[in-house]
Design a protein that fits this description.
72% helix, mainly alpha, 311 residues
Length: 311
């Protein structure tokens, strides 16, 4: 995610970090070269004048802009829902740590065993956030989980097809064990279990967003229409505005191609591109909060933007 103040003046036009220009510059260059060629030949192709008025482009441009806006709105809804789900996960994780520290008592084995159980469950909640991040991004989370889990549990997590779900199953086993050993009342355990259920629901909703993209046929239609519109636009403008055709066409193409590329980028918000959600920073925030609840002093520092990007 790009974290910076809005550029002003000339910097507004030369800023590249977070811009979609790096993704569309080839298409934009082809469109500009075509517009220059059409202007130079005055709209003639193989000595035949191609006559196009601005009317077809007016009729096509408005629906195209509406459909691109609708698709971007749908993509942003997915992005914002993902951010709300991770915000809810932060809330549930902090609540879970508070509940573990305040509701799980010493029980029959003794206070040391209870403290170990609380620490193990809170560290597992931290591991759950990291495991979900790696699961959504398809990356290897073995290193992050190794420092948070017992060796046997870490081995099982890295082998599991769904590590976050594996960790939640181990969390349920610990809750049952606490109930059997008298460390927690059955009524209070229902409250803890409800928090875990909410964390699982947030993870499942994130998986739904990742595994269900916007229908490809809809995206393909917009891709084709935007490119055809921009490639044909010089033929409709050259008689009206002459040598300014490449400038106007480039600006229009930048808008349409940029909106198209931006929709593709934020449609899947859990990736690692510049405009995706900063999952690593969110997980680091969860880790700091939960380890503070255990009165630990040596905490990892919060994530800071690197070159204006927070990953």
């Amino acid at each position: 995610m790009i974290v910076r103040d809005r550029p002003s003046g000339l910097r507004l036009f030369v800023t590249m970090r977070g811009s979609v220009l790096s993704q569309i510059w080839k298409s934009l260059l082809v469109t500009m070269v075509l517009a220059v060629a059409v202007t130079f030949t005055h709209g003639a192709l193989l000595h035949h004048k191609i006559i196009l008025t601005t009317i077809p482009f007016t009729l096509m441009g408005l629906p195209l802009a509406i459909f691109l806006g609708f698709r971007n709105s749908s993509a942003y809804d997915r992005y914002w829902e993902g951010r709300k789900l991770w915000g809810d996960l932060v809330l549930r994780s902090r609540n879970f740590a508070r509940q573990c520290n305040s509701l799980i008592g010493p029980g029959t084995p003794g206070p040391d065993e209870a403290a170990d159980a609380r620490r193990r469950m809170i560290y597992r909640a931290i591991a759950f956030a990291h495991a979900l991040r790696h699961h959504l991004r398809g990356s290897d989370g073995a290193a992050d989980l190794e420092r948070l889990l017992a060796r046997a549990e870490w081995t099982g997590a890295v082998k599991a097809s769904n590590p976050p779900n594996f960790l939640m199953e181990r969390m349920g086993e610990d809750l049952r064990r606490c109930l059997e050993q008298g460390r927690i009342d059955s009524v209070l355990m229902a409250s803890l279990d409800g928090t875990l259920c909410a964390m699982v629901a947030a993870a499942a909703a994130c998986e739904r967003i990742r595994n269900t993209p916007i229908p490809f046929s809809y995206t393909l239609l917009l891709h084709r229409t935007a490119y055809l519109y921009c490639f044909l636009l010089p033929f409709g403008l050259v008689d009206a505005i002459g040598y300014m055709t490449p400038v106007v066409v480039t600006i229009v193409a930048y808008t349409f191609f940029g909106l198209d590329a931006l929709g593709d980028e934020i449609e899947e918000p859990f990736g690692t591109s510049a405009n995706d959600l900063p999952l690593e920073a969110i997980c680091r925030g969860i880790e700091i909060s939960l380890r503070e609840s255990l009165a630990e002093e040596e905490l990892p520092p919060p994530c800071r933007p690197v070159n204006y990007q927070l990953s």
